[in-house]
Amino acid sequence: MDLVIRDARVVDGSGAPSYRADVGVTDGRITEIRREGDGPRPSAARTLDAGGLALAPGFIDMHAHSDLALLRDPDHSAKAAQGVTLEVLGQDGLSYAPADDRTLAEVRRTISGWNGDGSGIDFDWRTVGGYLDRLDRNFGGRGIAVNAAYLVPQGTVRMLAVGWEDRPATDAELDRMRELVDQGMSEGAVGMSSGLTYTPGMYAKDAELTELCRVVARHGGYYCPHHRSYGAGALAAYEEMVRLTRDAGCALHLAHATMNFGVNKGKAPDLLALLDDALAAGADISLDTYPYTPGCTTLVAMLPSWAGEGGPGAVLARLADDATAERIRHHLEVLGSDGCHGVPIEWDTIEISGAGAPSLAGYVGRTVAESARLRGEEPWVTARRLLTEDRLGTTILQHVGHEENVRQIMRHRVHTGGSDGILQGDKPHPRAYGTFPHYLGRYARELGVLTLEECVAHLTSRPAARLRLPDRGRVLEGYRADLVLFDPDTVAAGSTFDEPRTLPVGIPHVLIDGRFVVQDGRRTSVLAGRAVRGAGHRAR
User: Fold this and answer.
1) Which residue from 321, 307, 290, 306 is spatially nearest to 398, judged by alpha carbons?
2) Which of 178, 324, 421, 469 has a CA between 20 and 30 Å from the CA of residue 61?
């Protein structure tokens, strides 16, 4: 064998009690597990003494925004240092494939707050398969920092076939969208995502989404919606997604599934009852959450959907017109825009986390309300300035969550972990650097919301099952040696809201395909990550 990890506390990902064992690795796979006392100990060319550290499958981030970071940053310690060995990209209905020249420019501008503008990256792909191939041959063919799977982004697909117009798709446009989703799934996507509070994906009606989900289902994939509301009408929005996917015969994975804003305080049991009823009736449902109360998105996402029609240039033109800007303010502050989940915006909950324009750096770390008070102006005046001067690139933290909802949802039997980590901005959400150790340290060890074994199962085997990966997510012989060694007594997120880019503690070793990407607490130069293609992939 290439490597033996001796005297590890194996937390195998199944949820079963942990046990002591030596674990052998050969050619990137687990080839022997010798439990304590079960005969002679295996030998190998190299030995690592775990000293009782927990040995678990590598963590799977079911909701990641590393679409460009993996191409730009060979280190990528934001995820590697957490023990993440696989990320799922293409989230919230907006990413960089499939695309043509026009839509690629538009999407780069639209989600620059999530991923940066992509300067310095050669966008030499236009298809899902081309993007996945690019991941494999990145950095001179060495690959990427961690493994990555991809969801076909429904908003980008609509951008290609329909544009930015708020109207039903024609029959020809719907056929084109079906073709694009079918091609993306055939080329290796694991499913399809939507951002139904983001333009232009939010313009799709249920019938259109159902037809696209039928295509996803034929390839064995799943639908991952950021649904139409996490605020007013949240429960109805969840019910809509359950009904839609059942009609389509498609598996459903609910993105960052929570109940936010004052209207949903204490209402997690209502969501869980809805899911339990659907599961009992035969629905195939899973969900992911991050273990924090604030959310994170872009400031422009708060605007009403009509303000986004026509794309980024049209948004900026509307903001420049005083009468139209006043209408936007009225929707935000009085009516409750669909971009803000049907709830009138509370500017003291909107904290600026990042601005692309250097002249706006002074706003970062303050709420819009605080910045407005300092300037002696109304909050909308401040927000309008940010949107205009930053060319829609401003990112925000939205402090609208409830701790009791977070804890109850993470206990559910179909729950998985997802960071929803935006890596851009001067002060990003700490979940980007801390989600997985925060689950293990705060919610398992300190609060006991989950046992250690349950927590690891939520972060490993459950997401692997949703992704239909037959050889990942467990410490079992024959499985890939994507592994993490951590200290259950000390593991913790280093990242905080004040210092969000601090790396975790208590995770000394991380392996991908049996190669150390983190060793003795330090990131190595190894690039062992590759594109992980879905069950519907047809080799070209």
Assistant:
1) 290
2) 178
